[in-house]
Amino acid sequence: MTKRALVTGITGQDGAYLSQFLLEKGYEVHGVVRRSSHRGVEDHRLRWLGVNGKVHLHDADLIDLSSLLRTVEEVRPDEIYNLAAQSYVASSWRQPVLTANVTAVGVTNMLEAMRLGAPGARFYQASSSEMYGLIQEPMQSEKTPFYPRSPYAVAKLYGHWITVNYRESFGLHASSGILFNHESPLRGVEFVTRKVTRGVAEIKLGRGHELRLGNIDAKRDWGHAKDYVRAMWLMLQQEKPDDYVIATGVTTTVRDMCKIAFDHAGLDMDKHLVIDPAFYRPAEVDVLLGDSSKARRVLGWQPKIDLEQMIREMVDADLERLRHEA
Ligand code: NDP
Ligand code: GDP
């Protein structure tokens, strides 16, 4: 029997890689797409991976419960991956109410749609290491207390706990993956890794001279999205739903990540990097470092791609894109 998956956020970075992964496993893949006037460009990530014609897209929005319920009833999914969110931390201070509606209450909408329309399905919630915020332990595991530091992180914390609550209240097979930062050539250009790799590619091709960043002392535990979507799937293959941290266990400053990109392009970082306080945040998450030993033990998961490999892949992809745009 072919398994059916429903992916919210299918047009995002993780949605695209997860679709590719599930198609390779023989799944029928359905995705939720919110209506916009840009029809034809919203699936650019799916096109980049060559899977755009192979997935079924449904008009729905995370803040519109009836649209989600209708989609669940049409698709009758075996697995639901709830990846949709207002996912950018910096924007969450500028749009805090929207962030709460989509990233927090939207999770309840999706869980309700599943409870009413497909209670036997398995559910994955995209939780985030940002929930640890002002870290309470040097390495963060499933047992580490949370201390969110942005409207985004507060919203994600709600999403996490409502998933746990629906599991405990209604016996749903609902799991929450606490994923640390993960990137790829398909990462949004506003996030720091992609901003760096695109900026470096522009400088290399003579289309820019400087790269303006905020707090380059911040440290993140960065992995590759391709490795992380595999962990999402593994969680839903377990007999019992649970929560898992997914991380590499290595933390790196923004400065050192940036250096990898400049070095790969044969450029001197000190000649091009400018610190611009406009990119500082009202409250910062200084350092994140994940302990994913539970996922490694129970799921048999481990990352295959390290930061250096990933940043090089991203710089090369941005150089290729920019050459095509010429
Ligand atoms: P992206 O920002 O690339 O993708 C977000 C997706 O959500 C897009 O498809 C977007 O659609 C969709 N979306 C936004 N608002 C709505 C809405 N109201 N209704 C329906 N869909 C909506 O994020 P990523 O792929 O990087 O991340 C996937 C999930 O994992 C997110 O929930 C994110 O917060 C979480 N996460 C990500 C981490 C990371 O490092 N990447 C770390 C931890 C958690 P559109 O294309 O129309 O904008
Ligand atoms: P986040 O961890 O989800 O907030 O992912 P980001 O990639 O947006 O940011 C990672 C870290 O890089 C944060 O600590 C930011 O403050 C820091 N940073 C420094 N300069 C920049 C910048 O210009 N843009 C972004 N997005 N982040 C920056």
Short description:
With about 325 residues, this protein is of the alpha/beta class. The chain is built from 11 helices and 13 strands.
Structure notes:
This protein is α/β, with parallel strands linked by helices and 326 residues long. The chain has 2 domains: 4-182 and 224-246, Rossmann fold; 187-220 and 251-287 and 306-325, UDP-galactose 4-epimerase, domain 1. 42% of the residues lie in helices and 16% in strands. It is built from 11 helices and 13 strands. Helix 3 packs parallel to helix 5 and helix 5 packs parallel to helix 6 (151-170). The chain is globular. It binds NADPH dihydro-nicotinamide-adenine-dinucleotide phosphate and guanosine-5'-diphosphate.
Annotated CATH homologous superfamily of the largest domain: NAD(P)-binding Rossmann-like Domain
Task: Could you tell me the CATH topology label of the largest domain.
Answer: Rossmann fold
Q: Which sequence of SSEs, written as H and E, runs from N to C? A: EHEHEHEHHEHEEHEEEHEEHEHH
Total strand count, please? 13
How far is the N terminus from the C terminus?
A: 47 Å
**Ions, cofactors, ligands: which are bound?**
NADPH dihydro-nicotinamide-adenine-dinucleotide phosphate, guanosine-5'-diphosphate
Question: Number of folding domains?
Answer: 2
The overall pLDDT average reads 97
Helix content: 40-55%
Parts with pLDDT < 50 across at least 5 consecutive residues: none
Gross morphology is: globular
Descriptive terms for the model:
binds guanosine-5'-diphosphate; alpha/beta; two-stranded parallel ribbon; single chain; binds NADPH dihydro-nicotinamide-adenine-dinucleotide phosphate; Rossmann fold; 326 residues
